[in-house]
Amino acid sequence: MTKIKKTIVLIVSVLLIWFAVGFTDYVLVVMEKTPIFCIKNDTYSYKGLGYSFEIVPHIVTEKKEYAYYIFGMGIENNFTN
Question: What is the pTM (predicted TM-score) of this model?
Answer without folding.
Answer: 0.83
